[in-house]
Amino acid sequence: VVRNIPLTVPLPVAARVIEDEGYWKRRAEALWPDRPDLRATTPGKPVWKTYFFERTVAELFERYNTPPRAHPTQALLRTMARATGKHHLTPEEGGLMPDDPDRLRAIVAAAAPFVERLSLTQLQHHFDLAMVFTMLPSLVSFSVSYGARTVGTEYQPEMMRIHIENCETLSNYLPTCTLTHLAITESLLDDRLLREIVPGLLENHTLLYLDLSHNLITASGLAALAPLLHPRNNPILRSLNLCHN
Questions:
Q1: Burial class (CB in 10 A: 0-12, 13-18, 19+), 102
Q2: Within 10 Å of residue 45's Cβ, how many Cβ atoms?
Q3: What's the whole-model pTM score?
Q4: 37 forms bridges with which residues in the sheet?
Q5: Torsion of CA 58, 64, 155, 163, to 10 degrees
Q6: Is-contact 177 148, C-beta < 8 A?
Q7: Is residue 162 a contact partner of residue 212, using CB atoms and an 8 Å limit?
Q8: In what helix (H) or strand (E) does residue 168 lie, and over which residues does it extend?
Q9: How far apart are CA 138 and CA 5, in angstroms?
């Protein structure tokens, strides 16, 4: 019976009622023909269902980076259509206008129970990072690179780096989060911005791995991080990656 269930079942419905791994494997392979790496899935969790939701949420967040007052891209609308079980969405149906994220919230809410790892290879600074942490309370691994891969004539320098508002949001989130892995890479993170994150890092008691590689951190920033390396302040941190700074 499960083999006959169509892959176009709306995502909020499918998330709630379909547990069969064969269904989620079919749905994932239909969307992403590349061979997935499933080694990072949590033992005991449904492998294909977890993979499907984690990749879907990552795509939605990465592509939700249109400049203010701009319409969603066609790539974003195609992703939205897949997630809702439709073949096509107009910008109005997509509901992901920059000043109206309700549609995004509805879809991610269905996926949230299954998302523990989120890797964003591109994100723009005006995206509300607090929305990520509020909507995905079970995150244990979060990696992000600020910037945009394909912006064309809409390129602006501020689009290609992390901003102070993002750092403040992250610092406020860290003391109460469940993250064990955090990576902020290729985001032009400099000493001034790093200092905004450090207070949250010092109050965090779950991080095992911290990756700040490929940024603009100098000796001054390293001095700000130094208290984090003292066993009294953070006895469980195992790895700090600062290469290519």
A1: exposed
A2: 11
A3: 0.80
A4: none
A5: -80
A6: no
A7: no
A8: helix 164-173
A9: 29
Q: Which residue has the tokens 């490929």?
A: 214
Residue listed under structure tokens 């790093």 = 194
pLDDT digits 0-9 by tens, 212-223: 999 999 999 999
Pair of tokens at residue 27: 């749905």
| DSSP code for 141 | E
Dist. CA 188–CA 87, nearest whole Å: 38
* CA pair distance 54, 118, nearest whole angstrom: 6
Strands (E) across 100-206 are located at 117-123, 141-146, 181-184
Encoded tokens for 17: 């009622």
- Tens-place pLDDT, residues 140-178: 999 999 876 666 556 666 666 899 999 999 999 999 999
- Segment 41-62 mean pLDDT: 81
Residue 190 gets the label, from left (phi > 0), alpha (psi -120 to 50) or beta, of beta
| DSSP one-letter code for 239 | E
Q: What is the mean pLDDT of the chain?
A: 80
Q: What is the DSSP letter of 39?
A: T
In the block, tokens 């001054």 appear at: 220
Cα gap 211→188, rounded to integer Å:
14
Closest residue by Cα to residue 208 from 162, 145, 142: 142
Q: Crossing angle of helices 21-31/47-63, nearest 10°?
A: 30
pLDDT computed for residue 90 by the predictor: 43
Tens digit of pLDDT for each residue in 169-195? 999 999 999 999 999 999 999 999 999
